[in-house]
Amino acid sequence: MMKNINVKTGSRTEFINITSGIQEIVDESGVKNGVCYIYVPHTTAAVTINEGADPSVVTDIVSTLNKLIPLRYNYLHMEGNSDAHIKTSLVGSSETVIIEGGKLLLGTWQAIFFCEFDGARHRRVTVKIIGG
Ligand code: ZN
């Protein structure tokens, strides 16, 4: 089973917790044990798994990425969003989560985040569920 989640981002750089939306797709699939692939088909947006309990963690990740990879630098890419492309490659376009007993097998503090690096935009996340 494969499904898309639509994500509407509200600022240029932003992490959005999409864990519940992905769990809904797992629920819909009826798969009790298997694998969930989460894929972001964009060149300036990514997906990551990190702490969802304390929102300061995500704020710190965003501010550190912005410090390491500034918006303005002598980049060659004419579109003016090279920082977003670089952040996307560093963070990555996919995650894999094991499904156990119909639930995403995440650690207590883990959440799945959609990572916007060149918003605000309408984005898509593709989720593929494989049982077995
Ligand atoms: Zn570009």
CATH superfamily: YjbQ-like
Q: What is the radius of gyration computed over CA atoms, rounded to a whole number of angstroms? A: 15 Å
CATH topology: Jelly Rolls
Please give the domain count: 1
Widest sheet: strand order? 1-8-3-5-6
Q: What structural class do you assign from the helix and strand content?
A: alpha+beta
CATH architecture: Sandwich
Give the amount of beta strand, in percent.
35-45%
Relative helix content: 25-40%
CATH class: Mainly Beta
Major β-sheet annotation: 5 strands, antiparallel
Tell how many strands the DSSP assignment holds. 8
- pLDDT < 50 stretches: none
Principal-axis shape: elongated
- Integer average pLDDT: 97
Present as ligands are: zinc ion
Explain this structure to me?
With 132 residues, the chain is of the alpha+beta class. It contains three helices and eight strands, in the order ββαββααββββ. The longest helix is centred in the middle third of the chain and has 14 residues, at 55-68. The radius of gyration is 15 Å and the shape is elongated. The two termini are 13 Å apart. The mean pLDDT is 97. It binds zinc ion. Residues 77, 79, 81, 85 line the site of zinc ion.
